[in-house]
Write a structure and sequence with these properties.
The protein is an all-alpha fold. It contains 20 helices and 2 strands. Strand 1 (127-130) and strand 2 form a beta hairpin. The longest helix is centred in the N-terminal third of the chain and has 28 residues, at 2-29. The chain is globular.
């Protein structure tokens, strides 16, 4: 565990330290596109945050290669080299898109090339575990199709939720944490060495997200762009592929003594790729809804709009920060709930706990105008919007509550003094 934590902290530190210089580089390079109609930020913000994240990834891998136990993975497994090759291609494609823009079909082709390079180097689904049957081998062609499809779906799902400050990075971090716990339990708890690469990849993902989020939380100073979001999606997919089909249920049966217990232990990976898909259930659902919505309207599935889940939360009345926290909450509930379900002897308690949390989440979701106020003793330590004396200050600027058309009308009308002054000038 210490080596994994060291890699995580090094990755986070390097990503954090590189983000500032990368932001300045993005401004100088002109990677700061104008605000579009579907954007929620009001000022042009530099992109290319994926450059800092890729630097953190390389630093984390460099440190891991010098450690005693993790260093053996570079010799025993080709997954790490495949990850670096695929992430490099995906990162380069994202950098080009952030700076100059890349056609959607060209981008899709690049994603498939990056996935194909990893499959060619050995990162592919070998078999699918089936309850009561065991691992069912798949043909190389079928394994390639499943692997490439998973990468493309993951990449675009993460890219679709990159619409609010800190949303994509936080949700991928939550997913990586859940996957880290599960894969580490398989590796350390049951001695399954094939799960070790997935543990390393998850630790790297957590470090990249934690290092970048301080710069990306609302109000964001820099966006990760496609260079970051596509790379995060690829790494999440690789973590899933590297463990799927390589966990032999017989190894766990030898320790549990029961095939029934083994089935319960392996529930998250018995259905092919269930766990990695559930940890990004929200962005995946958003992706599917967007494709159906745009196709039904006669538009291209790649046509951008402002109807994603996070956009709808803003329309309901939630603030930017609260919409992000709500997405975090549901992502964590689904991801960690799935992982906790594989722990034996916790069924009833887990169901009651999840039901209570779901109820809490629904209550918060239905109260967009509710703004909690901190006690007087701790008001100095909380943001101004949670202080009692800031109620009038927050409600004072009525301009913030008006629509764009109303604001434009007020600007054209001007104040009473301006109107009087304008009349006297015309008369003179």
């Amino acid at each position: 565990m210490r080596e994994y934590l060291l890699v995580l902290f090094v990755t986070a530190a390097v990503t954090y330290l590189l983000t500032g210089p990368v932001r300045k580089f993005a401004i100088v390079a002109g990677a700061m596109p104008p605000v579009r109609a579907r954007d929620v930020h009001r000022e042009p913000t530099p992109r290319l945050g994926g450059i800092a994240m890729f630097g953190g990834l390389c630093a984390g891998l460099a440190v891991a290669s010098q450690l005693t136990h993790l260093g053996n993975l570079f010799i025993q497994s080709a997954d790490i080299r495949a990850l670096l090759a695929g992430a490099g291609i995906m990162w380069l494609l994202g950098v080009l898109d952030d700076k100059w823009g890349v056609d959607a079909l060209v981008k899709l082709g690049g994603q498939m090339i990056a996935a194909g390079v990893m499959v060619w180097q050995g990162v592919t689904v070998i078999s699918i575990p089936v309850p009561g049957v065991g691992p069912v081998s798949v043909t190389p062609t079928m394994g390639m199709v499943i692997s490439v499809t998973l990468v493309v779906v993951m990449v675009n799902a993460v890219n679709f939720i990159d619409g609010l400050d800190g949303l994509a990075g936080g949700m991928v971090c939550i997913a990586a944490m859940a996957f880290f716990l599960y894969s580490y339990r398989l590796w350390y708890g049951y001695g399954i060495n094939d799960a070790a690469p997935a543990v390393l990849f998850s630790a790297l993902l957590i470090g990249m997200c934690l290092g970048f989020l301080p710069h990306n939380l609302h109000p964001a100073r820099i966006f990760m762009g496609d260079s970051g979001s596509m790379m995060l999606g690829l790494m999440l997919a690789v973590s899933a592929i590297s463990i799927t089909g390589r966990v032999d249920p017989d190894l766990i049966t030898d320790q549990t003594g029961s095939q029934t217990a083994t089935v319960h232990e392996l529930v998250p990976i018995y259905i092919p790729l269930l766990l990695p898909l559930t940890v990004i259930a929200l962005p995946l659902a958003d992706l599917l809804l967007a494709v159906v919505r745009r196709t039904w309207a006669g538009k291209s599935p790649f046509a951008a709009d402002k109807q994603h889940l996070h956009h709808r939360l803003l329309e309901v009345g939630h603030s930017h920060s609260r919409a992000v926290l709500i997405m975090y909450f549901w992502a964590a509930l689904i991801a960690f709930g799935t992982v906790a379900f594989s722990v034996p002897g916790r069924g009833r308690t887990l169901v009651l706990g999840l039901a209570g949390l779901c109820l809490l989440g629904i209550v918060v979701l239905m109260m967009p105008r509710f703004r909690p106020r901190a006690p007087h003793a701790v008001q100095a330590f909380v943001p101004p919007r949670y202080r009692k004396e800031s109620v009038t200050a927050a409600d004072a600027p009525a301009m913030a509550e008006l629509s764009a058309d109303d604001k434009e009308l007020l600007v054209r009308l001007g104040t009473g003094a301006t109107a009087v002054g304008g009349r006297s000038d015309s008369q003179g």
